[in-house]
Amino acid sequence: MNLAIKDISYNIGRFVLTAVGIGMLLMVVMGMGGIYRGVVEDATLLIDRLDADLWVVQRSTRGPFAEISRVPAKLSDRALAVPGVRVAREFVYHTIQRQDGDRVLRMAVLGLSWPTDKGDWIPLVEGRPLGQSRFELIADQTLKLPLGRQIEIGNEVYQVVGISRGMISSAGDGIAFLSSADALAVQFDVPGEAVRLERAARESRGRLFDVAIQQPALLENATRQSGQLPAIARPSISSVLVTLEHPSDAKAVAEVIGGWTDVTVYTADEQRNLLLKGSVEKVRSQIGLFRILLTIIATIIMALILYTLTLDKLHSIALLKLIGASNTVLLGLILQQALILGASGFAIAYVVGQQIFPKFPRRVIITSEDLIQLAAIVFVISIASSGLGVWKAMVVSPNEALA
Amino acid sequence: MSTPMPADDPSAKIAIKAESLTKIYGAGNTEVVAMRDASMTVMAGEVVALLGPSGSGKSTFLTAVGLINPPTSGKIYIANQLIMDGPKALTNLRSFRRKHLGFVFQKSNLIPFLKAGENVQIACELNGLSSRQARIRALELLDYLGIKDRSQSYPSMLSGGQQQRVAVARALANRPSVILADEPTAALDSFRGRQVMELFTKVAHEQGTSVIVVTHDHRSLDVFDTLYEMEDGKLTQKTKEPLAVAH
Ligand SMILES: Nc1ncnc2c1ncn2[C@@H]1O[C@H](COP(=O)(O)OP(=O)(O)OP(=O)(O)O)[C@@H](O)[C@H]1O
Ligand SMILES: [Mg+2]
């Protein structure tokens, strides 16, 4: 006769409630682990997907994910000229927040280096990659922009031509892919009045130069587009992504490009590390610590539950001792119940979690590694926390049965 | 009583012998001498009543010979074996209890999450019977005590008298040499109380089990072979004279 199961089936309602309670608790622990994984995964997702061998960024900066990095657009042509480089892509990246009706639309704008990169590598659930150099965009699912939707950003209207899956910035915002020209236009969208003011300022500055006094016609240049001015164009893109002929050349090529005094070069691994050590480090350790805390709390609560479960049975345990039950029998009763409770709680946590986690705004990634780890923790908790109950059962005198 | 008093029969076996048991609870100011120099010899098949006012030490004596409350000094022999020498146990008490002793108490001490049949069955299983054999034995016992039809009921669904019968069945499970009962009928009306007492005599005389019953119920004293009285921790055997007149 299995006493543990007899007791459970006699008190089935209470057992189910307790198991559900423990299940919910474990689900939170599980979810916290999943959120942690999600943050780490999301943070490096873009770097992994972009699949560049080298990142060329503004001198002395840690790259576009850590801080503002500005390099001239022409840098990609320079990089392409280095032997061993197969492709050099412009990379434009920044986050914008706009209003879409009542909804706050927060998205990371990523410029694709048209025509080298039309976004063929982006996992699409619907639609197609970019088909023209301007005014099209691929939106991530999480942005909830339907295919064919026209949205106005800055002065222009863009059409959603593709919907991607799982393309999320390290901050958890969905990514919108535009051509780099469009991305720059979004980034440097300047209102008409500001342009007029800037031109007037240029003209008035120009008036003071001797050249302009002698050749007034030169002043007409002041009202031309800034890109057409002979002055040094402002560095405008975030970085250049370099793909090599042979990835093994990375070190040599990085040395060559790194020799240019206006840029710094990182390999993809270095870039990934900078990201994990930098912008997501605090979030990561915050969630990590919270997860540890939750595990400790779960341990304490489970210990309490299992202890009270044993206390409630103390009279029966004393009675069993009185009629001569060995310690093995009593140990079996308490441990089996703890394990059954732990296992049911874990199963409930898993099943309910599978239903709830996908509805979270950010990704909750439950890896089987984490599941096994949590199962091991629950196993240890169940045994450790019944220790208190076992101790109580061992010291209870059979005399108690008579009380 | 038709049965001769076993104590008079030289061929009868001694089931239990308590020698000069003393029990002191606490120490110093709070010291209570609950039992002083109590001795008792019970033969196989003998049914003994233990009388006395409240707080006189009856339960202390019963739990001492029941090996659940070691005496401060004195010796306890069960089945011709010295088990307790003062507070010192000379064998594994729990397994000895399982094999040789059966207990019945005031409030039925049944395990609430086991059905009546299972309460008896578990006692057999603890003593090494397979669960099949244990189930058969449990049903036999419940049948013997006339409550086989309630074997599938939980204790909470049984009346006090039925619970006590199940408790007696459990006490009998492993064919113990001694049954110890502490006010087993206190929660029952006098009719049911007497039924339980008669059950003990039946078991004792049919199966040779010795029974020691602590009781306040003077109406059923005629079923006992021997009467003892506890007063202020002192144990004395009472003559059964006035009761014998009834025969
Ligand atoms: N665990 C204990 N600690 C201290 N004193 C105790 C303990 N158990 C019993 N006593 C004391 O020992 C004395 C005898 O108690 P016991 O329970 O044996 O009496 P009893 O004859 O069974 O009484 P009742 O008829 O009320 O059940 C009492 O004075 C009681 O207060
Ligand atoms: Mg008592």
Give a verbal description of the structure.
The complex is a heterodimer of chains A (403) and B (247). Helix content of chain A is 50%, strand content 17%. Chain A is of the alpha+beta class. Chain A folds into two domains: 3-43 and 278-402, no CATH class; 47-275, no CATH class. In chain A, strands 1, 2, 3, 4, 5, 6, 7, 8, 9 and 10 form a ten-stranded mixed β-sheet that branches. In chain A, helix 9 packs parallel to helix 12. Chain B has 247 residues and is of the alpha/beta class. The radius of gyration of chain B is 18 Å and the shape is globular. Chain B has helices at residues 58-65, 93-100, 116-126, 131-144, 160-172, 190-207, 241-244, and strands spanning 14-25, 32-43, 47-51, 73-78, 81-85, 88-89, 101-105, 178-182, 210-214, 226-231, 234-238. Chain A binds chain B through residues 1, 3, 6-7, 10-11, 316, 319-326, 329, 397-399, 401-402, and chain B through 59, 63, 68-69, 94-99, 103, 105-106, 109, 111-114, 118, 121-123, 125-127, 131, 134, 154, 170, 182. The complex binds adenosine-5'-triphosphate and magnesium ion.
